[in-house]
Amino acid sequence: MTRPLWLLAAGAGAGLALAIAGLVTAPETERVPDGAIASVNGALVRRADYERALEALAADRRDALDERDERHVLDRLVDEELLVQRAFELGLARQDRRVRAELITAVIEAVTSEAAQREPSTDEVAAFFAEHRALFAVPGRARVEQVFVRAADDGDAAALARARDATARLRAGESSAAVQERADPGVVGTLPAAALPAAKLRELLGPTAADALAALAPGGVTAPVRASGGYHVLRLVAREAPVAAELAEVEPAVRAEVQRRAVDAALRAYLDDLRRRAEIDVAGSAPP
pTM of the full predicted structure? Predict the structure, then answer.
């Protein structure tokens, strides 16, 4: 791609976000006031943006830039502004989902940039940790034994009968290895012998089986749980409680959460202000 086309394509892609973020601004009383390099249909192209574009072009060139290069960069910025204006005239900001997404992202970043860049103080981090200590506890773990019975389909009555028999045998105290051999020999279990956190068990077994496990006391056995390809029968051998962490162990995570909530709060406050100043009518058939 030639340099003029590359600059034009890059400018067109970034221009909409720059316009909405305020980098291309409304004119002042002078035709081209201080701080601007050009006026395009009344909208200003900032001199700072022009200088950044020159620096980017110079970094890609071995020779020094001349007046022709400088004019070329200015022409590309003018073309970019013309394309931005035309995009709004065509209604692309509302009709094109990709453009809408880029505009929304640009506004969110502009609104939340201050909160995102502000580092919370040590006292703020400590106070947040004291109030939300449970969020940063080391998750509890569970050691689980599994018997899996393969089923051809949901109507495989023989497989379901074997899974129910496996449940009864596990509840009677038989070993999971012996029950597996009787119910469906040759099946290799998916669970390691070590204790696993709840998130890992959910990943390995699926949400239905994980929820069934969560309801068990140690020693309990689930009824057959339908899964892809068959039935799980699970025995909860032991459960370890979550372990409270010290601030020094989790400070980076606490600091990141404080920042994330500050960004969320800044965006929520901005949206609430926009709603207060907007005229919004909702159809009667809309949810309450």
Answer: 0.60
